[in-house]
Design a protein that fits this description.
With 196 residues, the protein is an alpha/beta fold. It is built from five helices and five strands; from the N terminus they run H-E-E-H-E-H-E-H-E-H.
């Protein structure tokens, strides 16, 4: 074996450089309080037995798909209609109207738009058959947001809005514009969830 050959058993171990993970220091009162996770039954069940167990009372904004105090990630191809779908979701929750036949619990909605220009957004909203005009539906047009950085001006704007008008549902359009990490980072979603 040759000295210095990384495949050699005699080679000195070489330190592999690692990219340090950014440190984010959240201010204690900078974020809204979220309910603690509810207790989950654990174990193995026959599906038939599992389905016959009584349901605990669990608050949903859209029953049974969008529970309160949880994260939902909507993914789809570009220009498939995700934004209009979320506008309708926000409108239905703000008005307490069914969302595609599913019951909703009326609540305050904050829609944070990072993707569309205000002119485009207004034109699209005006073309909706049922416009989201309820006062419980608030819209934030923000050009730059790094939700992972507590000192970011966009994040501070969102936090101030949340403190002044506490929402029951926050829709962030779009995740890829809410951080500065590379899109190839597989941990983006969990980092954003922890920061938000």
């Amino acid at each position: 074996s040759r000295k210095g050959d990384p495949m050699s058993h005699d080679a000195e171990p070489q330190e592999v450089p690692q990219t340090p993970e950014p440190e984010w220091h959240d201010e204690p009162n900078d974020q809204p309080t979220i309910e603690p996770e509810r207790e989950r039954p654990e174990g193995f069940f026959a599906v038939e037995d599992f389905m016959t167990q009584p349901d605990e009372s669990y608050p949903f904004l859209v029953k049974p798909y969008i529970p309160r105090a949880n994260w939902i990630l909507l993914y789809g191809e570009e220009s498939i209609g995700k934004s209009p779908l979320t506008w309708e979701l926000g409108r239905c929750v703000a008005e307490g109207q069914p969302f595609f036949g599913y019951p909703t619990e009326q609540g305050a909605v904050l829609y944070v738009e990072l993707d569309s220009h205000p002119i485009t957004m207004r034109a699209r909203l005006r073309q909706m058959p049922n416009r989201p005009v309820h006062s419980a539906f608030r819209l934030g047009m923000i050009e730059h947001l790094n939700i992972l950085d507590p000192s970011d001006a966009g994040r501070r704007q969102v936090c101030a809005e949340v403190a002044q008008h506490p929402p029951d549902l926050v829709i962030l359009n779009t995740l890829r514009k809410a951080h500065i990490l590379p899109d190839t980072d597989s941990g983006i979603a969990s980092k954003v969830y922890k920061a938000a």
